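Aim 2, interim progress: modelling of the flavin-adenine dinucleotide-bound target.
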Amino acid sequence: MAASICVVGGGVVGMMSAVNIAESLPSADVTVLADAFTPDTTSDVAAGFCFPHCLGDTPGHLVRVCSRWFGETVDHLLSVYKSPAAADAGVSMLTGYLMSATTDTLNVAGRERTFGLRPMSAAELRVCGKTGGSGITFTTLLAEGGRLLPWLMDTFKATGGQLVRRKIMSLSELYDEFDVLVNCTGIGANQLVRDETVQPVRGQLIMVSRHRHRHRHRHRHRQRHRHASQTAINHVTLGGTEQEGNWNLSPVETDRERIWEGCVRLVPSLKGARVIADRVGLRPCRPTVRLERETGVQQGTTTPQIVHNYGHGGAGVSLSWGCALDTVQLVKDCVHDISCWRQT
Ligand SMILES: Cc1cc2nc3c(=O)[nH]c(=O)nc-3n(C[C@H](O)[C@H](O)[C@H](O)COP(=O)(O)OP(=O)(O)OC[C@H]3O[C@@H](n4cnc5c(N)ncnc54)[C@H](O)[C@@H]3O)c2cc1C
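Predicted structure of the complex, ligand included:
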């Protein structure tokens, strides 16, 4: 009997996992269940700039794991970038200028997976409006959620996968329907599995029409305010906020004014840009990513098989494919155990 697998969550972490599971276990029935799909997920708000950051208190040995996930994601996105699907998938390359940063700002192994990382020259700092201080520049992959997610959904559907829009209050609602559950609910895990270590770090952004700006510019202020402007294929993203513990999904006018003023100071030619949308997303921050198998408590004749993959903070795009590869291995272990039980 084919195993039935349900990925709960239709953001970048859930869709990358679902595509990977469907391609690695072609005989399984795979469903993605979520109360929101693109364009209404946190992943749609993500700037999609690939480098590992905002990973909480990830301890030393896990930093190496995060670096592997990052490297695997970079390799995968590079293969998409070099394929005819790149434009549809929203995958491109972007050069970033990060003011007030040093090369030590980037996680050591992650650093090796960027292209051309070096300190900014005095001339580059002047062009970015700085008369002193430091900065770094490097090129990396950009994966825009608003394009990546529809492409992943099409890729998933082409494997025969099902998409179901539904909100659940507990994973136990699905125990009778599926053999294996994969929990990719991002910030939703706070309520769904009562994991209070997942907390929001609120990010507000302004999207403006594409103009001559072609890079990512970022400046971090002493007060932890960070302004960044970044080009995507059809728009420029202006950011942003990093407000810990803030669950507000509505744009706040004072945040908007501060973002606008900060970004125009950084790139004055943005002043005339046309605003397309104000967006807010809640980064699912956790001391570490939760990627593990849990064998739930037996319910009648069923022992629920659950794989958790959530809590990627501000790096969900950057880690998504690497985490999906580990998720598939755990799902395969579940399917193997289930088939052994069925034979006994
Ligand atoms: C402003 C901003 C900028 C960012 N920039 C970057 C960046 O440059 N690079 C980067 O790598 N990352 C970036 N991030 C982080 C990135 O967006 C997140 O890490 C990533 O989106 C998390 O993906 P996810 O799939 O886990 O969560 P989500 O995208 O939130 O998806 C969760 C899914 O679970 C579903 N769900 C939740 N609870 C339930 C429930 N009870 N029942 C049914 N369905 C449920 C939701 O409907 C949704 O489909 C940024 C985030 C923000 C806010």
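The chain has ten helices and 15 strands. The mean pLDDT is 87.
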